Amino acid sequence: xxxxRGRRLTRRxxxxxxxxxxxxxxxxxxxxxxxxxxxxxxGGTSGSASAKRGGILxxxxxxxxxxxxxxxxxxxxxxxxxxxxxxxxxxxxxxxxALEPQLAMKWEQPSQTEYVFHLQPAVxxxxxxxASGRDLTAADVVFSLNRVxxxxxxxxxxxxxxxxxxxxxxxxxxxxxxxxQPDVSILTNLASTSVAVLxxxxxxxxxxxxxxxxxxxxxxxxxxxxxxxxxxxARNPDYWKxxxxxxxxxxxxxxxxxxxxxxxxxxxxxLVGANVLPGPDAKKAFxxxxxxxxxxxxxxxxxxxxxxxxxxxxxxxxxxxARALRLLIDHDEAVNSWAVTWFGRGYxxxxxxxxxxxxxxxxxxxxxxxxxKSPKDDAIKEALTLLSAAGYSKDKPLKLNLSGxxxxxxxxGEAENHQAQVAKFGQGVVxxxxxxxxxxxxxxxxxxxGSFDFISANAVPAxxxxxxxxxTTFYHSGGGRNYGKYSDPKLDALIDKQRTLxxxxxxxxxxxxxxxxxxxxxxxxxxxxxxxxxxxxxxVHNWAPEGxxxxxxxxYEQVWME
Length: 562
Prior knowledge:
By secondary structure, the chain is an alpha+beta fold. It has a domain at 304-530: Dipeptide-binding Protein, Domain 3 (Dipeptide-binding Protein, domain 3), CATH 3.10.105. 27% of the residues lie in helices and 20% in strands. The protein has 15 helices and 21 strands. The chain has helices at residues 76-82, 138-148, 186-190, 200-206, 258-266, 279-287, 319-327, 331-342, 363-367, 377-389, 409-425, 440-449, 467-474, 489-498, 504-521; strands spanning 56-61, 90-92, 99-101, 104-111, 114-119, 164-171, 174-179, 221-227, 230-235, 249-254, 272-274, 295-300, 304-309, 344-347, 398-405, 430-438, 454-459, 525-526, 529-536, 540-541, 560-561. The strands form six sheets. The chain has a five-stranded mixed sheet. It has a four-stranded mixed sheet with strand order 1-10-9-8, with no helix packed on it. A four-stranded antiparallel sheet has the order 4-5-7-6, with helices on one face. Helix 7 runs antiparallel to helix 10 (377-389). The radius of gyration is 23 Å and the shape is globular.
């Protein structure tokens, strides 16, 4: 019999201290995601008294594994899975996104620009060379945070710590971090799985972090093997949280399309997974639950589809062209065709993933903008007028290449549907000369180098549960995934302002101001947002819904099976 669990996402959470001492500030800010039923916190040292030990949990995901196992330069679409074996100072609750301790046992905030973290006692690195089971120290944290924020462009998450002035080890178990100015997002950013704590000697030896032997973390599991299509981890017998984990191991298998994933699920070959059904079937599976031997839950995704014009290339540096390309998108069709077809649920958005729904513009607010009005007649007319003013017509069409992903059916579908919309609404004035679809590694390289005209592809920021990370990753000058090199000093100032507001209502208003400014001025938008159906075997306990590639890896220390 199917069991339905709570689905409404809780957005408000405490971004303050786990243990508030004298003079510390109690700060509230919220941007979170995850379903509403609380899961056991992973921050403790023991779990449920009824939990059973043993077993190998097999899970599915859509994204292939990267050839690099270094968390610091990678997007969290990879490092969330890596949190099975790597850990950060803090973590987010897998259902409420509330800030929780991880390697930091507690922390205080003596002022708006100063944080003091106290490490958990007796944390040890995995018993693998070169760390060989040694104790974690504050020096490891200092090394790791400074490495994340290096100016080397391959460290795409550096803006997570962009407000940091310095970090220092007070003693072996205490770290003091100061920021250049008040930053309400810094604690949430420290919970990013891309800001994992590594041992310096491991980094020195690992080189390119190309195989499992290079991975030495502090997490509940030890990486046993990894390939493009699979990853196996085994229980860490020396884990610093006594009694955990319950599982002997976790196996992850990659299914790029839902049909084989669902076949594996029904055959009992995988026990948990997202996007294991095509969209219409996902909706049906959720609506027609009675008598089904699975648990079904919707997950509001942390990724979205970014649409960016490369404004560093001519003629795309003409703002009229970028504006016209935005107006030629039919967001309703993207939601009701692409998102529903592939995932079961979609939503209107220009700048945030579904997990940020409470901070995004409402559908009514989006509908007030020409780009989102239905029918598209007025938007198409305005787009053609802009293109005409820029010198383009049916006799002299604007020809461009559209770049996207080839690594999954939904990625290809997004790019192909977008191409069809341009052909339909562009009326011969705009023509897609080439549809350039790349595998993930090639796409990342092409986008980072700026070797494109126009992109429509899935993306996720370094910390998808905070507005500031979305802004600084995609839209702030120098953002790690601001591939089109959009730069606007006024927008930068608006983004910087919202980061300093500790009052939630004031910050939400400031975030709305940023979004409205971008709706009127930015050359970027989104294709569609999505929600993902998760299927779970009733044998599995303490698991939390995940994305197609986004994993609450650290939560698996609490998961157990009957």
